[in-house]
Structure formats: C-alpha cells, structure tokens
C-alpha cells in the first residue's frame, strides 16, 4: 500500500517508525473505538449476552418453579426482580427469556439479512434480474402476513414438533417464518444503494482492468453498501423480537410456560399496577438490547464506510 | 353457595331502594353505557350461538318467559307459566299452551299476536335455516295458533320439561311481519332485519355497527309505561376482560361490563377504587379438562382424534385417568386464578341443587402419593428423566386451551402438579376466536381436539340438564362425517350412559330426573371422560350509580334491564 512510503507527520507519537501491515479489520476496529456510542453500546450488549448465557449458573432458581404462596412479591434478596402471580422468579425468567429472545432475534435477523442482501445486490447489479427479483419482492410485500403465518404454522407445526420436539421445532419454525417475511425492506434498500455505487468511477476502473464480477461485488460494492445493511440488521433484531412476542401472544409461538421477553411483557401488562417490575424488567431488557445494537450498528457503519474512516 | 346467598340478600336490598326510583317516568335517567368486551356481531340469536349476541339481542327481543336469578321461570309476555296443575301443560306431557298477555305491542306499534310466536318456531325449525338454537325446539312437532293470544306447542314425545321453546334469552320471539321473507336460506341475507329486529323489550335499536357498537333508545311501546328508566343506551364492544373491568371499577366510563375473567388480585385492586361493584353468581359453568379417548397422533392423518384412529395410547388406561385427576390440587387453582368466583368441584353438573351429585367427591382429595401408587401398580415405570413410560409409550401430554391469562396460569400449575407424578406436559394456547370458532378447516378447534387434554368452560342455558347431559352420547362424537359438530369432545362412549340418557327422556318426575342426572354425572367423573376442576361463577361489574342489577346465570345478564335505574 502507498501509505507505507508517506512519512508520518511530526509530533505524532503513535506513528510507528516501521509500519506494520494494516488490515481492514484492524482499521475498522481502530475507527470503531473512537465512536463513543458504539463502544458503550457494545459493552451493554455484551453484558446482556454474558448475563443471559452465564446468569442462570449464578442465579440458580428454576424459572419454571411455581410457588403460589409467595406470589406477586417485590424485590428481595432471594428474588432480585420479585415474583409473578404464580410465584415464579422474575429474574430467572428474564434470563431464560433473554436466551430465547436473543437467539430468535439474531438468527432471524441473519436469515432475513442474508436473503435481503443477496436479492438486493443481485437485483441492483445484474440488470436482467432486476425486474423479476423486484417483482418477487413486491409480491412478498403484498402478502398478508398474518394469514400466511397461520398457514405456515398450521402446515408445519406438527411435523417439526414430531421431529425436533416442541421447543426446537417451534424455534426453527419461528426463525424461518420471521426470516422469510422480513427481508423485503433490506432488499429494496440494498438494491438502491448498489444502483448508485455501481455507476461510480472506481467500479468502472475495476471493470476496465478486467476484475471479475464476483470480485467487484464482494470487494467494491458490498463494503460500500454495508451501512444500510448494518442499519437494517439492527432494526431487524428489534422487529424479530417483537414479532416473536406477537406470535406467542396469538398462541402460535412458543408454549405459554416458555418465557421470552415479549411474552413476559404481555403477561405482565395486567399486573402493572400491582407489581410494576413485571413489565419494567422485560421492557428494559428489550429496549436496552435494541438500543445498544442500534449504537453498535451506528459505530460499525461509520467504521466500515471507507469515506468516513480515516477522517 | 355462601357467596351466592349473600349476593342475593344484597340485591334484595338494592331492589328495595330501586323500587322507589322505579316509579319515575320512562326515560328520566338519561343514558346507559354497557360494555361487552366481545363485540356484538348480530342481533338475531337464531343465527348466532355467541353469548354476546344472545345477550345483546335480549335488550330488544324477549321470550315468553325468562329465568330469574334463582333459576325460577318468570312470565314475560304471558300472564302465567303453564303447568300441569293450571292446565297449561297437557296430562300426557305432549303439549303446552301459552296465553299471551293482552295489549302487547311491538316496538313499531303493531300488536303482538300468537302468529308471531308460531312464525318464530317456523323460522328456527326451517330445515335450510341453519338455526343455532334448534336444540330448543327438539321434538317439537307443530306450533298451533289457537286464537290471537293463545299458542299451543305440540311435541312428538312426552316432554317432562316442555319449556324449551320460547323460554330464556336463546329463544326469543321475532316479528312475523318483519322476518316473513327471511326464512330458510335467505335468513343470513336479511341484514337490516338481523341488525335491527323489532322487539317487545325495553329498548329498540337506533344504530347497529357490527362488531363495534349498538345504540338503543327506550321502546315507546314497552308494556310498562314507567320503564325503562333510561332514555337511551349504548352497547359497546372491544377490548379485553381486564380493560373492561378497569373502565367500570377504576375510570367509571361505563355502567356495566360483562364476563370479567381476570385474576382475583387484579379485580380486588380495581374494586378498591370504589367506583364500581363486582357481582358474581353461580350457574352451571364448570372449567374442566376433557381427556381424549382416541389417538390424536399426527401420523394418523385424516382420521386422527376419531374413533377410527383407535384408543389413546395411554389415556385409555383408567389408572392414568384417575391419577391425573387426584394429582390436581383444585383449591390451589381456585386460589391462584379465581378467588371468590370459583369453587373446587368434581361434578360436571354442579347445579341446580336437585341435580348436583355428592358421590364423586373423592377427586377433591389432593393425593400425590395415591396417584403415584396407581401409576406404579399399572406398570408405568419412571425413566431416567423422571417421566413414566410403559412398552415404549411415554406419559407425555399435549394440553391445549384458549388464550387467557387465567387459563395459562392454570395450565402452568397443572403442568407442575403432573410433573410430580412423572407425567410430562406440553402446553399450547390458541386464540379464543379460533379455538371456539368451530371452523372445520382449522386444526385448532376444540371439536377437532388434536391434543391429549383440553381445558375450557361449558354450561347450559336454563335449568334443565337433559340436553346437556345428552352431549356425551356415542352418537354425539365429533368426526369428519358430521362436520366435526357434536358435543362429545372426549369421544366417550358407553352403553350404560346412553341407556340413562334414553331413560331420562322418558322420565317426568323431577326427583327421578335428578337421580338419573346424578348417575350420569358420576359415570363421567368416575370413568374419567373429563376431569371437572372448578365450578365457575359468572363475574360482572356495575357502576355504583347503577341500581337494579340482578346478576343472572340462568338467562341473559341483561334480562331485567328494564328495571335498571340511576341512583339519585
């Protein structure tokens, strides 16, 4: 790289005398560290993930254990978030719910991102495929979502339940259902961005030196459209968590004794006046997760954008 | 029943107070706001079985006789209830003659005659009409108009209880002149008639918006010139039980709300605000678990959950059924989900008192050890994960019900109790509109019963259980052949039971009928066709400014809306 021969400005203490090989990842990381919101977001998000994964080992109460005699309790040492109307420990439920909600959110987001980005890039880059793929996107956008979900769940629920058991089966089904019904916005945005990027001179330059199309897409187009992808990814997690809770509420999601953040919220609404912690904690967990992911996405977008990076 | 009697004395006091203001003139008390959180979709009970529709219609159209809050029949459009003693019911029990009160007018000012009554029967009994209340007209041979004010119902068999047709909110009289062109297949097409029937009730419809709101005004031709006290009324739909309770008890936006199945602690907290009163009464509603006697496994395909699929892999074992029942701590379920509006029961037929059995109370005894012993004895061995199995069949239950926070709480508790006797439970909850919707295309209806156990509440209108108990006949099992209609959800079939049902249809004497009903109840509980859990009261709430409410489990809750007044 040409940077290696440029002498660092005087008085720059960090400038090494012998420059090391720079990688994209290191550049991104250096830039990301300077985005304060992104760093705070990452710390919060990693803390939530850490708690959700290791919390149940520290707080050993079974989230499903019932104790009707000690119901609707407030905050105490034994129950840091109180108990619900059947005496289940709220903290244990929030931790267990987080495992489900986060894994549903992240997996569904990845699936919809993969679909949306692939379709968006292909439609934007290859003119011949643009029409058919965008009409397909329109078709999916026009599908009435709820009846579609009802049909899919009706057709496959018993099959998956028999093969993978009630919880894994429903997990796969929900992730799949959310994934294939939420990729359209991403595809649209990515296609728009690809259309504008592919007309720029550096793409023409790459073409003129005979770069293969696959390489142009991965090396030149994708990094330049990463920012909209990151934004839809962060929004996608939030949507997936919320869609999952709506499905559970309709009775199409996980069994009612299987906690997720959305379900804890719904169940708690009636008890809000008796025991506000029933809605505060799961609500806070959802908001914090979504907010922190949004900030991480913001930071990543800045760090990944070659035009901003290095400024 | 203690709660019930205290309630009764309470209403008697309210009535005494209300009597003074009832002398006031019609329409002097302004506007009445009623909230039914399941919105009314039609005002013709013959075309809808939904309680909300039946009760909404009861403000407008009335039967010849109603049931009061104690379950006694009271005359509405007649002067007295026909009986064998007063000659209204024939000696052979094959006919009943109703004498209509003179001078009754429809809300459009035309006279009410026996022709309207006869037409109503014709309307509902039309073979292509799809009448939802056809059970009320079972065994009716003909309805004769004797003269303008006398109508005679002839039955094909002796009817010990001839008060099916034209008694209670499910069987009101509609106007012949209005519905004449709406019989048979044209019934559902008559939107204007179905949304705004002319009636004899205290109110008449001014505006009807399906699934939203119905507006009423006082019926100018109502038989009592001083009633109703309210000039106008609104029947609003929408929301859920908790928000309905809040709008009466906390914010006071509405005067009356129906069916408040909310956790007791929430209701108590709301009632503490002092704006409203929670009222309850016990009718025949029983929250029960129904056990599937047939094989519901998905690999049976189209015949799953039918007799053809064969017996259930483990619920066909009487020991398992009994263990399931005695391992449930019913008192705990009452405490967690029902409070004062529920009582532990072992009867599927808990009321009226004449029919309530006491012979099956063994199941009230919560006994985990006995349940475990029963299962051990029957050869169900605990596996490594603590779940019992025999010959490769695991005791793993799919347990479904409708979506409602109280039901989900009950499910969670029952799952925990069954866990202790080595039975694994998977919970499923289905939206009430789908679960009770009866759509033959949906796999999630309670009739299809594609699960091992399901839980819901059922009851019967009026006070005579004959039709209700006939719901567990072998011939009443839902299957693809009958479009999944039929009331026998457990797919229970017993010759002894069928014989008792036949015997009851021929027995006139009340005591003997009571004995037969008890026997049937005991068979159902002892055999474990179903596991009764809780005798549920109906819970409603009214504003402290509303007087005259007499909470009724035997008829429409709005049965005496004509007598409601505003406290001064």
UniProtKB/TrEMBL annotation, chain A:
<dbReference type="InterPro" id="IPR050366">
    <property type="entry name" value="BP-dependent_transpt_permease"/>
</dbReference>
<keyword id="KW-0812">Transmembrane</keyword>
<keyword id="KW-1003">Cell membrane</keyword>
<feature type="transmembrane region" description="Helical">
    <location>
        <begin position="221"/>
        <end position="242"/>
    </location>
</feature>
<keyword id="KW-0472">Membrane</keyword>
<dbReference type="Pfam" id="PF00528">
    <property type="entry name" value="BPD_transp_1"/>
</dbReference>
<comment type="similarity">
    <text>Belongs to the binding-protein-dependent transport system permease family.</text>
</comment>
<feature type="transmembrane region" description="Helical">
    <location>
        <begin position="104"/>
        <end position="126"/>
    </location>
</feature>
<dbReference type="InterPro" id="IPR000515">
    <property type="entry name" value="MetI-like"/>
</dbReference>
<feature type="domain" description="ABC transmembrane type-1">
    <location>
        <begin position="98"/>
        <end position="297"/>
    </location>
</feature>
<protein>
    <submittedName>
        <fullName>ABC transporter permease</fullName>
    </submittedName>
</protein>
<feature type="transmembrane region" description="Helical">
    <location>
        <begin position="39"/>
        <end position="58"/>
    </location>
</feature>
<keyword id="KW-1133">Transmembrane helix</keyword>
<dbReference type="InterPro" id="IPR035906">
    <property type="entry name" value="MetI-like_sf"/>
</dbReference>
<feature type="transmembrane region" description="Helical">
    <location>
        <begin position="168"/>
        <end position="190"/>
    </location>
</feature>
<dbReference type="Pfam" id="PF12911">
    <property type="entry name" value="OppC_N"/>
</dbReference>
<dbReference type="GO" id="GO:0005886">
    <property type="term" value="C:plasma membrane"/>
</dbReference>
<feature type="transmembrane region" description="Helical">
    <location>
        <begin position="279"/>
        <end position="297"/>
    </location>
</feature>
<keyword id="KW-0813">Transport</keyword>
<dbReference type="GO" id="GO:0055085">
    <property type="term" value="P:transmembrane transport"/>
</dbReference>
<dbReference type="InterPro" id="IPR025966">
    <property type="entry name" value="OppC_N"/>
</dbReference>
<feature type="transmembrane region" description="Helical">
    <location>
        <begin position="138"/>
        <end position="156"/>
    </location>
</feature>
TrEMBL record, chain B:
<dbReference type="InterPro" id="IPR000914">
    <property type="entry name" value="SBP_5_dom"/>
</dbReference>
<feature type="domain" description="Solute-binding protein family 5">
    <location>
        <begin position="82"/>
        <end position="473"/>
    </location>
</feature>
<dbReference type="InterPro" id="IPR039424">
    <property type="entry name" value="SBP_5"/>
</dbReference>
<keyword id="KW-0732">Signal</keyword>
<dbReference type="GO" id="GO:0030288">
    <property type="term" value="C:outer membrane-bounded periplasmic space"/>
</dbReference>
<protein>
    <submittedName>
        <fullName>Peptide ABC transporter substrate-binding protein</fullName>
    </submittedName>
</protein>
<dbReference type="GO" id="GO:0043190">
    <property type="term" value="C:ATP-binding cassette (ABC) transporter complex"/>
</dbReference>
<keyword id="KW-0813">Transport</keyword>
<dbReference type="GO" id="GO:0015833">
    <property type="term" value="P:peptide transport"/>
</dbReference>
<feature type="signal peptide">
    <location>
        <begin position="1"/>
        <end position="24"/>
    </location>
</feature>
<dbReference type="Pfam" id="PF00496">
    <property type="entry name" value="SBP_bac_5"/>
</dbReference>
<dbReference type="InterPro" id="IPR030678">
    <property type="entry name" value="Peptide/Ni-bd"/>
</dbReference>
<dbReference type="GO" id="GO:1904680">
    <property type="term" value="F:peptide transmembrane transporter activity"/>
</dbReference>
<comment type="similarity">
    <text>Belongs to the bacterial solute-binding protein 5 family.</text>
</comment>
């Amino acid at each position: 790289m040409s940077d290696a021969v440029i002498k660092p400005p005087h008085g720059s203490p960090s400038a090494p005398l012998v420059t090391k090989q720079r990688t994209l990842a290191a550049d991104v990381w250096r830039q990301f560290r300077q985005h304060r919101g992104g760093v705070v977001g990452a710390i919060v998000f990693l803390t939530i993930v850490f708690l959700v994964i290791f919390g149940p080992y520290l707080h050993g109460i079974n989230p499903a254990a019932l104790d009707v005699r000690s119901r609707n309790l407030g905050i105490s040492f034994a129950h840091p978030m109180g108990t619900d109307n059947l005496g289940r420990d709220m903290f244990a439920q929030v931790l267990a719910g987080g495992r489900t909600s986060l894994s549903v959110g992240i997996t569904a987001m990845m699936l919809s991102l993969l679909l949306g980005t692939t379709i968006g890039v292909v439609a934007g880059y290859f003119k011949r495929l643009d029409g058919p793929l965008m009409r397909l996107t329109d078709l999916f956008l026009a599908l009435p979502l709820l009846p579609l979900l009802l049909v899919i769940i009706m057709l496959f629920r018993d099959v998956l339940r028999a093969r993978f058991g009630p919880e894994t089966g429903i997990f796969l089904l929900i992730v799949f259902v959310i994934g294939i019904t939420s990729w359209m916005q991403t595809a649209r945005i990515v296609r728009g961005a690809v259309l504008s990027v592919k007309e720029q001179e550096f793409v023409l330059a790459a073409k003129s030196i005979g770069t293969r199309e696959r390489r142009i897409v991965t090396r030149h187009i994708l990094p330049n459209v990463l920012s909209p992808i990151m934004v839809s990814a962060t929004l996608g997690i939030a949507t997936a968590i919320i869609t999952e809770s709506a499905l559970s509420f309709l009775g199409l999601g996980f069994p009612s004794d299987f906690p997720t953040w959305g379900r804890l919220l719904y169940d708690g609404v009636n008890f809000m006046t008796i025991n506000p912690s029933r809605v505060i904690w799961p609500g806070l967990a959802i908001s914090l997760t979504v907010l922190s992911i949004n900030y991480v996405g913001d930071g990543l977008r800045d760090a990944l954008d070659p035009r901003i990076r290095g400024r | 029943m203690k709660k019930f009697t205290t309630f009764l004395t309470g209403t008697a006091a309210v009535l005494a107070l209300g009597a003074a203001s009832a002398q006031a003139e019609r329409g002097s008390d302004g506007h009445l706001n009623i909230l039914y959180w399941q919105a009314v979709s039609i005002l013709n009970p013959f075309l809808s079985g939904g309680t909300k529709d039946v009760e909404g219609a009861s403000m407008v159209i009335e039967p010849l006789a109603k049931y009061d809050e104690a379950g006694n029949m009271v005359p509405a459009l007649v002067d007295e209830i026909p009986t064998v003693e007063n000659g209204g019911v024939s000696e052979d029990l094959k006919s009943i003659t109703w004498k209509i009160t003179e001078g009754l007018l429809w809300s459009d000012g035309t006279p009410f005659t026996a022709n309207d009554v006869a037409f109503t029967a014709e309307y509902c009994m039309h073979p292509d009409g799809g009448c939802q209340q056809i059970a009320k007209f079972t065994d009716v041979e003909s309805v004769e108009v004797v003269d303008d004010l006398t109508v005679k119902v002839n039955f094909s068999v002796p009817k010990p209880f001839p008060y099916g047709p034209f008694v209670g909110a499910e069987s009101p009289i509609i106007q012949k002149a209005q519905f004449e062109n709406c019989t048979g297949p044209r019934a559902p097409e008559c939107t204007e008639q179905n949304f705004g029937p002319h009636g004899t009730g205290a109110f008449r419809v001014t505006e009807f918006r399906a699934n939203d709101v119905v507006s009423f005004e006082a019926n100018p031709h109502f038989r009592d010139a001083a009633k109703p006290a309210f000039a106008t009324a609104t029947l609003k739909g929408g929301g859920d039980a908790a928000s309905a309770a809040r709008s009466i008890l906390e914010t006071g936006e509405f005067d009356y709300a129906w069916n408040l199945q909310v956790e007791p602690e929430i209701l108590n907290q709301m009632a503490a605000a002092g704006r409203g009163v929670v009222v309850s009464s016990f009718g025949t509603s029983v929250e029960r678990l129904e056990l599937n006697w047939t094989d519901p496994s998905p690999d049976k395909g189209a015949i799953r959950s039918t007799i053809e699929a064969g017996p259930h892999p483990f619920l066909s074992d009487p020991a398992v059924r009994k263990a399931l029942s005695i391992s449930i701590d019913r008192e705990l379920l009452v405490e967690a989900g029902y409070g004062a509006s529920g009582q532990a029961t072992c009867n599927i037929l808990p009321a009226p008192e004449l029919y309530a059995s006491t012979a099956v109370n063994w199941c009230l005894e919560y006994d985990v050890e006995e349940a475990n012993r029963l299962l051990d004895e029957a050869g169900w061995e605990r596996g490594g994960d603590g779940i019992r199995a025999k010959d490769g069949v695991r005791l793993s239950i799919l347990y479904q019900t409708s979506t409602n926070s109280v039901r989900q709480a009950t499910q969670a508790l029952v799952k925990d109790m069954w866990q202790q006797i080595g039975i694994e439970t998977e919970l499923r909850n289905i939206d009430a509109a789908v679960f009770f919707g009866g759509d033959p295309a949906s796999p999630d209806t309670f009739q299809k019963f594609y699960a091992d156990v399901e839980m819901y509440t059922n009851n019967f209108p009026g006070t005579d259980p004959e039709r209700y108990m006939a719901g567990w006949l072998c011939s009443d099992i839902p299957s693809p052949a009958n479009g999944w209609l039929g009331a026998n959800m457990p797919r229970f079939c017993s010759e002894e039971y069928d014989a008792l049902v036949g015997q009851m249809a021929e027995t006139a004497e009340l005591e003997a009928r009571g004995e037969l009903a008890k026997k049937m109840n005991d068979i159902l509980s002892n055999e474990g066709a179903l596991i009764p859990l809780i005798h549920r009261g109906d819970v409603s709430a009214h504003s402290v400014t509303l007087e005259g409410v007499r909470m009724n489990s035997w008829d429409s809750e709005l049965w005496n809306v004509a007598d409601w007044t505003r406290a001064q």
